[in-house]
Every structure is written in structure tokens, then in C-alpha cells.
Specification:
277 residues, alpha+beta, 2 domains, four-stranded antiparallel beta sheet, 9 helices, 6 strands, elongated
């Protein structure tokens, strides 16, 4: 009867239970364990978490997180320019091609685990992520402003703001699932059994990760389901259904610019008072 080297399981168990240990290291151990068990689907899942998901890969649900849609704006006027670096908008304010593509207030996190682990240690509050086609959509929004007579308004970027705890939540969910996987393998091993069998690895993968089948099977993962101070940007696709027709995005800009005008006027008053002193 084929069995799996218990040392791989023991090392994986130690890695997932140690919160100070790198999750990337635990996933590499999972790759080794899956290889010993000839479980291609478990191996491919761990490799995708390590290497990151491609644009055409289906993402696990836990890798889609809430995100604020933001734009950066330059408003040119006689003698100067007013810059607004992070102005929140709704998905209804995006150009129609962006809405049809499914871009909304959820961001897909496709980066590999090690990149995410480093990111959360370097960024304090939020991470900027750029949707696919963001430069094109910013140009469309600028052109629309020109058609409305706001020639001095330039949309310089469109991006998501993702809260760092949302990224940490992805890491925690993966660690929890790996822990459950190890626990399921342990539970399936009767007293006295030293090494897990491939069938026990397969059953544990189905139970903990919803990964079914052995070699050459399709795997499916189902799981329940912010400017960075020191950087952190990435490009990602969104595979969401196209929304119904919505009102044009520009209907709130007059209100926005009125508010900005009040801010600028107030800043002028403060400057005058300071100069008078």
C-alpha cells in the first residue's frame, strides 16, 4: 500500500501552527506532500497560491476583497493646478466600458503569497491596485469632462484602495485551511498508523479545501468570503458579470468641484490671515 512520508506532514503541521512562520514555506511543504501523494490538484492549488494567479485563472472567493474606487484629478486654472490624489467615486461613475468589464468595488488579489506577506509588513493602512485598462478609462473620463466644457479637468488615474487587513485576511484564511487540512489527515489516520495514505490526503483535501480528485483532475476552491505609505500597486482583472445600464458617471462632478472650490476658498482665507500676522 502506498503511503506518504510522515516527515512532510509533520513539517507542514509545525509550519501552519506557527504564526511566525512564513505561509509561503508552509505552502512549499504542501507541494512536497502533494507530490508524495501523487495528488496533482492539491499540488497545483499550492503552486498557484505561491506563484500567483494569472489573468485567466478563476480566483478563489477569499481572494476577492472589498475595495474603494478612487480617482486622482488635476484641475488646471489660470496660474496653477489643483491636485486631488484620492477622490472616491462609485462604480456608476466609471465609463461604460469599465462597467461592462465588471470593474466595481471588489478587487481581485492575484499576487503570490510571499509578495502579499511582504506587502502587509511594508504598508501601514491601504494598498493601491490598478484595474486592467485603468489608463484607458482615465482618458475616457477626461474626454467626457472636455465634452461637458470642463477643459481644465484631467483624470490622471483610476485605482482601488484595499485595506491592509483585507490582505491579512487572505493570508489567515489560507493558513486556517492548511491547518484544517492537516487536522483532517490526522483524524483519518487510525491509531498506530505512521504515514498517511494517498486516499487520506485526497479525502482531507476535499474536506478542508474542496479540492477533489487525484492526478489530472480539475480542482475547484470554494471559500467564504485602501494610498499606501510605502507603495504597493498591481494590475488585476475582474471577472464579474456586466451590470445593468446605469446613469452617467459625471452627474456628481458639479457637486464635487463645488466642494473643492469651497476648500480652496477657505485655504485662501487662512493664507490671508497668516500673511496679515
Amino acid at each position: 500500500m502506498n503511503t506518504v512520508d510522515i516527515r512532510s506532514l509533520e513539517r507542514l503541521e509545525g509550519a501552519v501552527l506557527d504564526d511566525t512562520a512564513s505561509l509561503a514555506s508552509a505552502l512549499r511543504l504542501c507541494v512536497v506532500l502533494a507530490r508524495h501523494a501523487h495528488h496533482q490538484d492539491l499540488r497545483m492549488w499550492a503552486l498557484k497560491e505561491l506563484d500567483g494567479y494569472e489573468a485567466n485563472d478563476e480566483l478563489p472567493a477569499y481572494r476577492r476583497v472589498p475595495a474603494a474606487l478612487m480617482v486622482s484629478v488635476n484641475r488646471y486654472f489660470l496660474g496653477g493646478v489643483q491636485q486631488v490624489n484620492s477622490l472616491r467615486i462609485s462604480r456608476n461613475q466609471l465609463p461604460q466600458p469599465a462597467r461592462e468589464r465588471g470593474i466595481g468595488e471588489n478587487a481581485p488579489i492575484r499576487q503570490g503569497i510571499r509578495e502579499l506577506e511582504v506587502l502587509v509588513t511594508q504598508v501601514e493602512r491601504v494598498v493601491h491596485l490598478s484595474p486592467p485598462g485603468s489608463a484607458e478609462y482615465a482618458l475616457l473620463m477626461t474626454e467626457e469632462q472636455e465634452r461637458l466644457g470642463n477643459e481644465g479637468t484631467e483624470i490622471t488615474s483610476i485605482h482601488w484602495e484595499v485595506a491592509v487587513p483585507s490582505i491579512e485576511g487572505i493570508l489567515d484564511r489560507i493558513r486556517t485551511r492548511l491547518t484544517q487540512f492537516v487536522a483532517e489527515v490526522r483524524t483519518s489516520m487510525p491509531s498506530g498508523q505512521q504515514n498517511p495514505e494517498p486516499a487520506q490526503i485526497d479525502a482531507a483535501a476535499q474536506q478542508a479545501l474542496n479540492i477533489s480528485g487525484g492526478d489530472n483532475s480539475t480542482f475547484n476552491i470554494v471559500a467564504p468570503n485602501a494610498h499606501a505609505d510605502r507603495g504597493g500597486t498591481a494590475s488585476a482583472n475582474v471577472n464579474e458579470s456586466a451590470p445593468a445600464a446605469v446613469q452617467p458617471w459625471w452627474h456628481r462632478w458639479s457637486v464635487i468641484w463645488t466642494a473643492l472650490g469651497v476648500v480652496v476658498a477657505a485655504a485662501g482665507v487662512v493664507a490671508t490671515v497668516l500673511l496679515a500676522k
